[in-house]
Amino acid sequence: MERRRGMGKTALLAVLCFCVRAAAGSDPEAEMNFEGIESKFSLRTPAEPDEDVCYLVPGQMDSLAQCNFNQTSKTFVVIHGWTVTGMYESWVPKLVDALYKREPDSNVIVVDWLVRAQQHYPVSAAYTKLVGKDVAMFIDWMEEKFNYPLNNVHLLGYSLGAHAAGIAGSLTKKKVNRITGLDPAGPTFEYADAPIRLSPDDADFVDVLHTYTRGSPDRSIGIQKPVGHIDIYPNGGGFQPGCNLGEALRLIAEKGFSDVDQLVKCSHERSIHLFIDSLLYEEKPSMAYRCNTKEAFEKGLCLSCRKNRCNNLGYKVNRVRTKRNTKMYLKTRAQMPYKVFHYQVKIHFFGKTSVTKVDQPFLISLYGTLDESENIAFTLPEISSNKTFSFLIYTEVDIGDLLMLKLQWEKDTFFSWSDWWTPFAFTIQRVRVKSGETQKKVVFCSRDGSSRLGKGEEAAIFVKCLEQPVSRKRGGAKKASKENSAHESA
């Protein structure tokens, strides 16, 4: 009874204060007004990660106790993107579950803006401002009423939700700790100003995964330009392995046409699953490498970890803040766990005559102390006599320290008259390999001093040199080092 009486007095005082402010001409909106909030804040539980069983309601202090909100733990706020069906997509409970497995005592809040998110895309895109405002008011309420530290708040936004998270971060009175953008939406945001999209200013630290940036900038599903402190482009950011036509046919055969939309979303949604991977496989973090362009990365020129040039992808990213956006690249597998091992391979092709060939297919096999990875296929855009070429290869297998490698020049799949009449072979003395994950460099030597490499012929075998040779041309080594640094720097 006493509690009810107290609440009545509080309500009466609030009305009196409102009247006084109104009479004085002050703006009642200056105080927190939660009536306009349409977004819902569902505190999911580890037991039911796919159900909205309890909502935190801004302005209603008892909702935190009712939902068992843990005020001493970190809070993850998950913001979904555009939806055709008006329902949560299957990744939401998977992310919730992974967050709880990694941080069992945390609070995982899913922001429900489904009604606004299922409109015509430009309409839903415009609604991100209001959703961001809702989230910001919710966070400010938590901070002001309960002294909840914003250093414990991590926003995770997917597609349009990434920009809603950015707007929320820009509107909170104090900065939140971190925002992770999971393939932020491209259309209407690629050329947008920072205040209405995700940007580095929206949190103490902003990391972004770009997984579907195909097409012209204004038509790309995912935003192409960097919008965080660290922007990671897995597999170049344009298309993800496993998201092809063959995979679509398999999906249709297994599940029918109901899940065909998964093909469209496959690369876009891969950003979420890469982050989930980083939560579940703590001991196997995927490594990303700083590079100016994906073309330089494909040449293996950027596998350096000096001066924060490499970083973990996902949850355990090292928080590096620079004046400029840092673009990073890596390769991944088609399925979880996504981690692969990166290698730069450098070969000097000797030839008695001057020959240049383009788009040549090769196979390389690596043998190490732990395992082996055979017949890794790669294509060199160009090879020429008496020139050195660098390229990137990667393997799903942890082969340990390298001991031996084989190199084979594959025969073209079609019949080539030029190769029939004018057979040609290069000779190779050494192969230099650098591991991105261990940063170790190994030089392999031909067992016969030099090995013949001809198209369609047997593989050339190289073993670890007994003594690792020292470059005689110091100036040349310095020049090469500068070139690599230029590619690696962001």
Model description:
The chain is an alpha/beta fold and 490 residues long. It has two domains: 40-330, 3-Layer(aba) Sandwich (Rossmann fold); 341-412 and 424-464, Lipoxygenase-1. It has eleven helices and 21 strands. The chain has helices spanning 2-24, 62-66, 91-102, 114-117, 121-146, 160-171, 245-255, 261-280, 294-298, 417-421, 474-488; strands spanning 40-44, 55-56, 75-79, 107-112, 153-158, 178-182, 205-209, 230-234, 287-290, 310-312, 326-330, 341-349, 356-368, 372-384, 387-395, 402-409, 425-428, 430-435, 441-446, 451-454, 460-464. Strands 2-1-4-3-5-6-7-8-11-9-10 form an eleven-stranded mixed beta sheet, with helices on both faces. Strands 14-13-16-21-19-18-12-15 form an eight-stranded antiparallel beta sheet, with no helix packed on it. It has a two-stranded antiparallel sheet with strand order 17-20. Strand 13 and strand 14 form a beta hairpin. Helix 3 (91-102) runs parallel beside helix 8 and helix 5 packs parallel to helix 6. The chain is elongated, with a radius of gyration of 28 Å. The model is unreliable at 1-30 and 472-481 (pLDDT under 50).
Number of DSSP strand runs: 21
The chain-level mean pLDDT equals 87
- In order across it, which strands form the biggest sheet? 2-1-4-3-5-6-7-8-11-9-10
Sum up the overall morphology in one term.
Answer: elongated
The amount of beta strand, in percent, is 25-35%
What CATH architecture label of the largest domain applies?
Answer: 3-Layer(aba) Sandwich
CATH topology title of the largest domain: Rossmann fold
The total count of helices amounts to: 11
Number of domains: 2
